[in-house]
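Practice problem: predict the structure.
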Amino acid sequence: MPGSESSSTPTLSLLIVDDHEVVHQGLAALLGRRSEFHVVAEAGTVAEAVAAARRFRPDLIVMDVRLPDGSGIEACREIRAELPDTRVVILTSYPDEDAVLSAIIAGASGYLLKQIRARDLVAALEAVGRGESLLDPAVTGRILERIRRIASGDQPDELAQLTSQEQKILLLVAEGKTNKEIAAEVFLSDKTVKNYVSSILGKLNLERRAQAAAYMARTRGSAGGS
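Answer:
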């Protein structure tokens, strides 16, 4: 990267959340030596992540899904509710459709797999720092197709729970739009859109799915496979 480009790029403060020490130290080493980023803290649990976010108010958080005391998606939801200007990128080993959909609705700006190359991760985080949203290509197609099926009525059990307005908002959320952007598009207040998103989350039972995913990860880990 040419020095002139990096010098004109504002430095983004970064919080790294992963319960594997090797992973979060590796990420801190990789990103910390780049001028675009300043790693302000590292955390290994949901509780530590929320506390660090409140203390440092980072521009970006790189968040694992499966943490010892819960789900990174729950942490994302809590942090974004309190710090809407902080952007969260989920970085995980698992292309789990329920987790991806939950992450999008929780306010995550991206969902990437840990198999991503270092330079691509840097580019992705820079994109999120500029206000863009992104998903790993390995999961994007399946998730958007699932949302389209819900919206078109091909999954009537799930669709029946959502009003036409909720379906429209769900599709906008899936496109990576913020609550403010959605509010402008559907002519509602930010607070009303936030209430709609909470309603969608509850009706699709996504919160419990995220918790179940975190539980299964812990039980699999204790059985010897991660």
